[in-house]
Each structure stands twice: as structure tokens, then as C-alpha cells.
Amino acid sequence: MLDKTYRPSEVEPKHYERWEQSGAFAAHTDSDKVPYTIMMPPPNVTGSLHMGHALTFTLQDVLIRYHRMIGRDALWQPGTDHAGIATQMVVERQLEAQKITRHDLGRDKFIERVWEWKAESGGTITRQLRRLGASPDWAKERFTMDEGLSAAVREVFVTLYKQGLLYRDKRLVNWDPKLHTAISDLEVEQREVKGHMWHFKYPVEGMADTFITVATTRPETMLGDSAVAVHPEDERYTHLVGKMVRLPIVGRLIPIVADEYSDPTKGTGAVKITPAHDFNDFEVGKRHNLPQINVLDRDAKITGDVPAEYLGLDRYEARKKIVAVIEELGLLDKIENHVHMVPYGDRSGVVIEPWLTDQWYVDAPTLAKPALEAVETGKTKFTPKHWENTYYEWMRNIQPWCVSRQIWWGHQVPAWYGPDGAVFVEKTEAEAAAAAAAHYGKTVELTRDTDVLDTWFSSALWPFSTLGWPEQTPELARYYTTDVLVTGFDIIFFWVARMMMMGIHFMGEVPFKDIYIHALVRDEKGQKMSKSKGNVIDPLVLMDKYGTDAVRFTLAALAAQGRDIKLAEGRVEGYRNFATKLWNAARFCQMNECAPVAGFDPKAVKETVNRWIVGKTAETADKVAAALDGYRFDAAAGATYQFVWGTFCDWYLEFAKPIFSGSDEAAKAETRATAAWVLDMILHVLHPFMPFITEELWAQMGGRSDQLMLRDWPKFDGLHDSTAEEEMDWVVRVISTVRGVRSEMNVPAGAQVDLLVSGLDGGRAGWAKTHADLIVRLARLAAFEPHAGADRVAQAFSHGAAQMVVDEATLVMPLAGVIDIDKERVRLEKEIARVENEIAKVDKKFANPDFVAKAAPEVVEENRERRAEWSAAKEKLQEALQRLSGA
RNA sequence: GGGCGAUUAGCUCAGCGGUAGAGCACACCCUUCACACGGGUGGGGUCGCAGGUUCAAUCCCUGCAUCGCCCA
Fold first, then answer.
1. How far apart are CA A502 and CA A314, in angstroms?
2. Which of A295, A334, A462, A727 is the residue whose CA sits 20 to 30 A from A563?
3. What pTM was computed for the model?
4. Cα A353 to Cα A357: distance, rounded to the nearest angstrom
């Protein structure tokens, strides 16, 4: 016998271990089934499970489990990425506690330490994924720093280089002065900051008392100014263009140039140009052949050809000093408060400096073209579709991708330099040496580039590198072009776009057919969850409290397309209740000996209730399947919830009760078998969402030893039975109507009353007879008389009775001593008014001649029927009202 | 400034060219032999505003307002 409530913590680990150990998660490369593949977006190896992970992995697991059940060879490829900067920071922080830096250790020893850290702590996220019930093929788990994936990285780097799609260049990068590395645009966060706009007067050379005033938010960069720009059509400055300015403090002569970058409406209309420290100025500098004067070092301290007293100053100290000196010189025009956007490193949290360095770049604009086309031509489809625009926008304006990073943890750039700086890009040192020997005509000493590659460089190869590429493995042949990528919109740029570029370039095919973009999980007020706001909901805590299945079901049920998820704990509680409801329904079945019957044929059931429920069951399975096929997780979850609770528990099991306690043994046996079968089907349909409770019930309900997760999805044709449905709908309507009136008339819930029916037509009279037991029980009746004679009704009326109209029939409920005649009259009048309102609505349509002429015939017919029904009901109600007055 | 999305019951959200729905919350009743993590019943909505298309608009189109996100 099942326990009274379901206890997730006792059940979950048991099933997970069994699934994993039995190989139930494994894909089968030699299978003759059609493959279905999802590449798991690799979480950071440093990561631990947050709500966003819980959502994305739940949805992926739902898809994988569903497709496994519908007969696909499902591969969910798991793994983690090495998270270059994040991981390096974690280990550096540990070293800091021991008061040493990575430089004390040296590169090789430091990397060894990182691997040790990974071995000890890197498994957190994958352990948590197991708790979530995720069913990837763990045996295939990969890590972006694996030998195989590293080989793929080298192969790609060298190939792109030799194809001219990857090159070394000196450009401005986003420099993180704390982490001492370049970071990509995407790792820069623009924050609105209250700062100042300083207006400096630069004296124009050779024109006494003539100044040109420039405005800046970063005064310290003036040390590197190489020009002042004004708009070519700005008449205020036309006479100054071509003149020179004597740069204060530095003393350098710099030109005044005309350039359209300068906006006459902003500030003074004149702008200082610092090509080495500003992205826009860099472009202006190139147009006018201006020198790029670097005045900052890797720590963003002042360096270079500047007055000695500034050397070594921090950028902000330098700023203060410069402003003070400019003021002393009488060149400070004014200081304004100014709100502007300042770039911050998303990892380090410090202000980023544009800095001139040598870096490796991927020619993203070239690679983007086919990636763009793949989406335009529908080879890859976004769901929801509108995310295409975001993708297009990014791809059409894509910049060269800076892939080198000045850190140690990552894939070291496979480039070697000869004594004269000539570069040799090869997969191995030996090949580089050979290339160098060929170049120089002798063996030379080579030094390897110390940079490593952006983590996203290796992640971009994930869809094929995990399958064995550059080796031509059977897995690669079978599973590449995966079926769907499931991810959040926040990494469309970071990851999706780059996988598309690399996948198409190296595999010749898109990496995925579908891209499903899901929402962000927010708190119940719609705020983004963040540690600083303190509104983070920990999925692990929720799983402890309500069970994993409840958390999974909640996330799936809330995953409506195109809308963020506002998660309130109450929702999880509600779906925990749903799990308990299912558990108790199973318990009820068990108590009533509803055991699965071998060879049970749902098509062969005879009882109306059973014909009805098997039809509804098949319909639900189809509905859920269709919803999942369209990535409508919310609709899929909703349909199962509605069926399990609203149909199976609320009605079918209630209908079964009188049968179980009745004397018709054949009906009893059939109903038991049917109930067991329906419950089994529910377990199947619910399994992708709630894998643990369903697996547990599967094992407990039939004493079966096979695993639910490997069984076939229910697929039945020809079970839908519209006559059974019509019949049971009528029964439901009768019971609901009686219950409604009982409640409204304040008939005590415990009191059993009679129900007399008059005017039933022949067919429904038969239904009434068939389901009399069931109506009696569910409407809590003492007696049910489907064919009450006129005198019987009249007699009932003499003592007071309530009346209801269900289709052509009038139901009379004698309520001697209980009935309040006035209240009943009001109730009937209200009913009549409601019906009249409906009739009026239909009449309004018919009053319009164009409706009959132009509307679809079936719509016209439907309205005609509806009017007839309402009209008949109105008549019946009016009769009832008259009877009441006559009583 | 550009783009995208949202606006439907108190809250969170489905929905859809032709009878407005769910869950939660709320009110009342119920320890009825699966379940109080439960059962039953009920109240509550000019579907953001203004135009347009249509026989018919909550739904399609245009504009506006408000909110949110992304990009500059």
C-alpha cells in the first residue's frame, strides 16, 4: 500500500541511480532509430545551479525524455566549459588566502593548481543536474579543456589562420586593468554613472588670447591628445581649422581638424581626440593620420611621454591633478554634472579602458554571412520567431571578434614567434619548428604566444567538437546537425551566433534545426534575481522543500513563449499539491484493486464511463505531444494538469466509486482495469515533466520491473468516442446543476434530497437510468426519479421545491421546509435574464442582413441552433416560475 | 534615438475573427470510506485608449499611452 503522502527525498536518489547505472540515459550510435539530439549549453565548471539553469535544463530534459519515449535515439550531450576568467579568478582567490600570486607559482604550476581545483570542486554543477533529474548521456560528458576539444580548438585556429579568417592586429580593445586582459564587447557592461563634464580651454598657437574649449569626461586622457576636432560645417570654428593648439601641461602642438564625428550641438562642438584611448577617436585618428599616443599602462596608470610628475599615477589621481593644474593655469572653463554611460568589466567590476594592444581576431563579418543566410532561408528556425531579429541585428553589424586573452587558464594560442618576430601558426610546436626552419633555412629558437583563447572560442565548436571532430567519428556523422538548441536570449550573441558561424564553416551544415529561446526567470515582482537585491530563489532549496518534480513542473508550466517567468513560491507549492493529488489518486486505485491487466485493450471497453475516459486519455496524450512538438511547454503541462485533476480525479474516479461498491461484477472488473490503464497512461504522459513520482508509481502500482522512462509514449487512434462524451457531459451537467442549486438554496451538504425529472427525451432517459447510481452519489440524493409523473411533481410542489432546466428536461428538487420561495423566484428570474441576454446577443446578429448573407453557413447554423436552445430553456424556466407562483 | 515585447478577473498568466478561460487569492459550505497538500459552490472582467478593416474585433491593421527588455 502506498504511503499517505509522497516523500520525494526518499524516492528521487533511488530512481536516479537506477536510471544512470542501467544506462537508460545513453544514446546508441548503432541504433536504427532516428536520432534526436540536444547539445547541452555547457555550464561554467565553476558554476552552481541557479534558477536559470533549472529552467533551461528542465525544458531540455522534458524534450529529451519525451523524444526518447516516442522512439527516437535521444542524445543529450552534456559537459561543462572551462570559464577562463571566472575559473582563474576562483583559483587566484584561493592563492590570495595563502598570500601568493599566480606569478609566484609560474604558469605551469598555476595551471596544475587549476586542474586540481577542477578535480575537487568542478563537479558541483553536474551533481546538481542529477538532482534536477536531468537525463543526459553522462558517459559522453565533455569539458572544453579536454584533449579532444583542445585538438578541435587548435585545428580551427590554424585552419582559420591559413584561410585568412584569423589574424593578428593592433587595435583598441576593452582592457580590464584589474584582470590584465582584453575582454570582448559582450563582457562589458554599460552602467549609467553620475560624473562630470570638464571644459578645458586649449590655447590656439599663434593667436593670442584665442582658445578652443573642449569638453571631456576623462580629463586624464588629455595627456594623449593628438588633435582637436570640429565639425566641417560649424561656422564658429571654420577659421581655426588647420591651426595648431598648444596642449596644456604636455606642451605638444596638435592640429585642429575638421571631422564629422564632432557634433556641433553637443558641448562646445569641439572635441579632443585621443586615438589611443577612445574607440571613436581611434577612427578619427585614422582618417587624419594622427599619432596614437598611449599614456596608460596595463594597470591604467600613467605612462609614456608625459611630464615626469604624472608617471605612475593612477588614472583617477592623474585626473584630479590635471583638473587642478588646468584650473591653476586659468584654463578650466567650467565643470558640469553629467550623467553618462561608463564601461565596466562584468567579471572584475572595474572601469574598462580602451587600450591599444596586439590581439588575435577572427574575421567574424565574413563568417557571419552564411550564418545569417541559414536563418534567412529557414535552415535554422528560431522559436519564438521574433528572436530572429535580434540575431539578424547582431550578425549584420558584427565586429571582428577579439579572441585572445591575457590570462593563463585556457587554450594557449598555437602561434610561435621567430627571433625577428615572424609568426608561425601550427597545431604543434614541432610543426611550427618545421615551418620556421623552412622559412629561415635553419633551426631557430621559437617562443610561443602566451595568450589564451576566449572561452567562447571553444564553446563555439561545442556542437561538433563534443562529437569527436576533427576525427570523423560515427557520432559526428549521426548526431550532427542537432535537432534543437535550448537557451536564453542573453547568449544569442555570445554563443548561438558563434556556434552558427563555426558550425557552418567547419561542418558545412548548420549546427541545429531549431533554436528555442526561453525566458528569464524573475522574482514574483518581475525583478531580475540578483545576489545584491537578495531576491534570489535557490532551486535546490525549493527542491528540498517541495520535491524536484514540483519544481520542474512549475518551470515547465510557466514557460510560456515570449514572456518572462515571474516565479512565486506559491506556484511551486501548488504543483507539489498536484503531485500529492496524483499520488492519492494512485492510492485510491490501489485500494480498489485497480491492477494493470495484461493485454488490456482500451478499444474493447463497454461501459460508457470507461469508453469516455479512454477517449479523453488518448486525446490528452495527443494534445501534450502536439504542444511539445511546438515547444509549448506551458500548454503541455496545462493539459496534463487539467486532465489528471479536472477529469480523472474529479470525475472519473468519482464515477468509479458507485461501480466499485455496486454489484455489477463485469462493470467492476472493467472499470478496475480501465482505471489502472488510465493511470498508467497518465504516468507516461507526465513522466517527462515529473520523472521521479511517475517512475515510483510505475514501480509500485504494478510491481513491474521495467523502467517507465524507457517505455513508449501512448499513441492511440480511434479511442475518441463522441457519444460517450456527450453522455458523460450530460451527467456532469446534471450533477453540477443540482450541486449549484443545493449550494445556492443552502441545502446542508450532508442532507440527502430527492430529485424528480420530467420531460426527459427517450435517449437521455436511458442515460439517466444507466447513471442513476452515480448521479445519486455525486449529487447527494436520497432518491432519483427520472420519470416523475405530473401528480408526483405537483405533490412535491405543494411543499415547496426548487427547479432546474437541463436541456429539454426540468429537474425538480423537493425542499419542504427548506425552500425560500422568494429566493427561488429571484434565482429563476436571474436565470431567465441570463438566458434572455444570450438570446438578445444572437438576435442582434440575425438583425443584420449581412450576417446571414456573408457569414460562413456553419456559423449561421450554429447561431440558429444556439438560439433555439436558449429559447427552449427560457420557456422551461418561465414555466417553472409560473409553477412557483401557483404553489 | 533604434528595435522587440507586454497591457485580459485582486495577483500571475493562457486564449482566440463568431458562448471570455485557468491557477492562486477571496467568500460560503463540508472531518462524505484516495487526498484538508482535500471536496463542493460562488462572486469578480466595456480584454490599456482612439480610430480603421470586417457581416462580426479582446483577437487583424494604424496611431497613442503606460511598463519592461535589448542595442546605441
1. 41
2. A462
3. 0.89
4. 12
